[in-house]
Structure formats: structure tokens, C-alpha cells
From TrEMBL:
Domain Xylose isomerase-like TIM barrel stretches: 106-289
Naturally occurring in which organism (per UniProt): Dyadobacter sandarakinus
Molecular functions (GO terms): isomerase activity
Name of protein: Sugar isomerase
Pfam families in the record: AP_endonuc_2
The UniProt record lists the keyword Manganese: yes
InterPro entries the UniProt entry points to: L-rhamnose_isomerase (IPR050337), Xyl_isomerase-like_sf (IPR036237), Xyl_isomerase-like_TIM-brl (IPR013022)
Alphabetized UniProt keyword annotations: Isomerase, Manganese, Metal-binding
PANTHER family attached to this UniProt entry: L-RHAMNOSE ISOMERASE
Length: 427
């Protein structure tokens, strides 16, 4: 299924007058504060969020999975789904593949399909947290950190194979997340596990093409419940520093212990020039993989305040970082959920762009705590949705992506095409 431009235009025509009123009002409001709305809109248009190939179907938990209808049955259909998202919001212009869930068997055709929908390929992800059919050695007790050199070699080779797949598609990064760790005290040696992992990562690093990067993702716990080899940003950074300049830290918002100050982690990583990018999601308890901004929007805003600061300090544009969603949709339509996540990301980014940095610095320099808080909250409490809608409209997308998705009956059309009982690959 494809959404045609005329459908988007018709939808926008219907909403234009009300949207324009809101946009003009916001523009005036910001103008009074010396902020150019057009510049914020331009920055929003440039901000692209990659969609994970593993999040286009219904998610599940260990208690079950309630598949929705019309889920993509192949890589091609997944790319088509991302094409639908991008047509609607013009902010989801790339897809991140997880191997072997999504092996590009015919790379040329895959690239052709993607580029016909305006999509490129983001980081490729390796998977050594599950055993695959016909796999020689098991990852039950680890992969890159395993005590058996044979298992480590198998996991290294898998990562190198993933790089090869990525090269064929024009990806420029390998994303590594290890579930390696232990479930019980005494089960493994922390030091040996670290050293084996480092050696394995060094072999993978050596196989990276010149213009590639490796993203090292950390996670506090799960599926191992006592220790995880790369459990926090500090260990991830340590691996990256030991590996070299092509290795950077990937922050997944759900991978911290409760109440971690993620914005401070982000500031530190950016100060060191070692932030690769993000896996966006939201959570209340653990790695809940909920819709971005659905639980802690203020935290997301504070993270974006640091991101904007860091990008300005480093003089780097938003396109030089890897922005990805890593979410699961247990009860929502996956595509609607992804549209909501992308919108939430853009809203937080827009709010962060409104922060009066000069005034904030001034307030900090005289320890005016009240004013500093007020400056941040003024930005956070501004309704920036008209700016996000304007960015999508100017880029050729819909003013209300979820509204149009429902209006044209995307899901029922996909169910007609693909059937009501389909299960996409992923977790
Ligand atoms: C692990 O929880 C993770 O965040 C990693 O990014 C994996 O690649 C992905 O989820 C798998 O769903
Ligand atoms: Mn992740």
C-alpha cells in the first residue's frame, strides 16, 4: 500500500486554516522572545529518526504476544511500512535492520525499493542474544564474552557478516548489544568476561570499513539478572576508549537503573565526543519499550536540552548522530505508535531549541536557581506542536499523521493485502 501525495494534500487542505492560526500565533509568541520560528521548523525538518525493522509488528512479553493484523511478512513489507510512516511525517527517512531477523537476500532490489520510498539504511544490528536454527554453538552462556574461544569466534564472525550485509545496503555503522552476563554470583569472572569481550570487539573493530562506526549499547540487566558485561555507560565508554575513535556509546533510554540521570550521562558522553546516538523509548519500571514521551516527557526534554547544547559545542548537526526508536507495541497499532514516538521526539527537540541559553548561563553564574528552573520550564511548557506540524507540512507530510493514517484506513488496507493473521519477525 502507498499513500499518494494528493491524499496528503487533501488532508492538509482541510486542516490548513486552523493550523495556520495556531502557527502564526506561536510564531508571534516566539518572536517576542527573539526566537525565529522558521529556524526551529528548519531544524525539525532536518531531524530524521530511524525506524527499527524489528518494531513494525506487535511486540510481546514473556507472557505472550497478541499479534495484530496486516503485520509485515517480509523485509520488503517492512520497508513498505517505513515508507508509509515517512510519507506521513517526512521524518522517518531510514530503517535499521536486525540480522538475522531481516537478511537482505537481494540487496540491489532492496535498495531500489527503499530509495523509491525516500529511505536509506541506518545502522545494522547484530544478534548474539538468541540461538538461530542450525547454529553450531549456543549463546546460552554468552557470546563475545564466552569462556569458550569457539563461541567467541562464532559471535565475532556473525558481527563481521552483519557488517558485510550493511555494506551492501549503504549502512555506515554496526550496532552491538550483548546480553552477555551472569544470573548468579560466582557464575562468571567479571574481569575475564570484560577481557574476552574486549578481544572479541577488537576483532570486529578491525573488520570495520574505513568510513564505518561501531555503536556499543549498554543495558543494566535483562536477560541476565545478576551481572551484565556492558551494564552501564561507563563500561560502554571504557570499551569504546580502548577500541578507538570509530567506537561510540549508544544510549537506549530504557537501559538504566531506576532514576538514573540520563541527561547528565548524555552531557558527559557529548563532552567526550563519544555519543553515537539513541534508541528512543519510554519506561516506568524497566526496559518497558513504551512510546517515546508517554511516561516521562520532562526527562526527554531535559535530555534534548543537553543534546542541543552538545551539538552546538561540537559544531555538529543533528544528522551526524544516530537517532533511532527501539520500542515495542504490545497493545497499540505499531505504525500509529511509531508515528506518536517520532512526534514526541520532535516536540522535545523543538522545546529544547527554545531554551534561552544566554539567560540560563547568566542565571547559573549568579546561582539564581529559581530563574534557571523557570527558563527551562518556560520552554518545556510552550506548545510547540504547531511548529512540528508546520515542519511536516513543509516537507510534504501530513499535518496530522495519525489522523490521516486512520482516515485512509491504512491498517485495514494492510490486513486486506497481507491477511489478518500475520506475525512479523522480532522479539
Ligand atoms: C535490547 O534490549 C535492545 O535494546 C537492543 O537494542 C536490541 O538490539 C533490541 O533491544 C532487540 O529488541
Ligand atoms: Mn536498544
Amino acid at each position: 500500500m502507498k499513500i499518494e501525495q494528493y491524499q496528503i494534500d487533501q488532508h492538509n487542505d482541510g486542516l490548513l486554516s486552523s493550523h495556520n492560526n495556531q502557527y502564526v500565533y506561536t510564531k508571534e509568541l516566539l518572536g517576542e522572545q527573539g526566537i525565529y520560528a522558521d529556524e526551529v521548523v528548519k531544524a525539525l525538518q532536518d531531524f530524521q529518526v530511524a525506524i527499527p525493522s524489528w518494531a513494525l509488528g506487535t511486540g510481546g512479553t514473556r507472557f505472550g504476544r497478541f499479534s495484530g493484523g496486516g503485520e509485515p511478512r517480509s523485509l520488503e513489507e517492512k520497508i513498505e511500512d517505513v515508507g508509509l510512516l515517512h510519507a506521513l511525517n517526512r521524518s522517518s527517512g531510514s530503517i535499521s535492520l536486525h540480522i538475522p531477523w531481516d537478511i537482505p537476500e537481494q540487496p540491489k532490489e532492496t535498495i531500489q525499493l527503499a530509495s523509491s520510498l525516500g529511505l536509506t539504511f541506518d545502522a545494522v544490528n547484530s544478534n548474539t542474544f538468541q540461538d538461530q536454527k542450525n547454529q553450531e554453538l549456543s549463546y546460552k552462556f554468552g557470546s563475545l564474552s564466552h569462556v569458550d574461544a569457539g563461541v567467541r569466534k562464532q559471535a565475532v564472525n556473525h558481527n563481521i557478516e552483519v557488517i558485510k550485509y550493511g555494506e551492501q545496503l549503504g549502512s555506515k555503522a554496526l550496532s552491538v548489544w550483548l546480553s552477555d552476563g551472569s544470573c548468579f554470583p560466582g557464575q562468571s569472572s567479571f574481569v575475564k568476561a570484560f577481557q574476552y569481550t574486549l578481544e572479541s570487539l577488537q576483532e570486529i573493530y578491525a573488520a570495520l570499513p574505513d568510513d564505518w562506526k561501531v555503536y556499543v549499547e549498554y543495558k543494566a540487566y535483562e536477560p541476565n539478572f545478576y551481572s551484565t558485561v556492558i551494564q552501564d555507560w561507563g563500561s560502554s565508554l571504557l570499551f569504546c576508549q580502548k577500541l578507538g575513535p570509530k567506537a561510540d556509546v549508544l544510549v537506549d533510554l530504557g537501559h538504566h537503573l531506576p532514576n538514573a540521570n540520563i541527561e547528565q550521562i548524555v552531557a558527559t558522553l557529548m563532552m567526550e565526543g563519544r555519543l553515537a546516538g539513541f534508541h528512543f523509548n519510554d519506561s516506568k519500571y524497566g526496559d518497558d519499550d513504551l512510546t517515546v514521551g508517554s511516561i516521562r516527557p520532562y526527562m526527554l526534554f531535559l535530555i534534548f536540552v543537553e543534546l542541543v547544547d552538545g551539538m552546538r559545542r561540537a559544531n555538529r548537526g543533528s544528522s551526524s548522530y544516530a537517532w533511532m526508536i527501539d520500542a515495542s507495541h504490545n497493545v497499540k497499532d505499531p505504525l500509529e505508535d511509531l508515528l506518536q514516538s517520532v512526534e514526541a521526539i520532535l516536540i522535545s527537540y523543538a522545546e529544547a531549541l527554545l531554551v534561552d541559553r544566554k539567560k540560563l548561563e547568566q542565571a547559573r553564574s549568579v546561582n539564581d536557581v529559581v530563574l534557571a528552573q523557570q527558563i527551562l520550564q518556560n520552554a518545556f511548557r510552550t506548545d510547540v506542536r504547531p511548529l512540528v506540524r508546520e515542519a511536516m507540512r513543509q516537507s510534504g507530510g501530513a499535518i496530522d499523521p495519525v489522523g490521516l493514517f486512520r482516515q485512509v484506513g491504512v491498517r485495514s488496507e494492510l490486513m486486506n493485502e497481507r491477511g489478518k493473521i500475520t506475525v512479523a519477525t522480532g522479539l
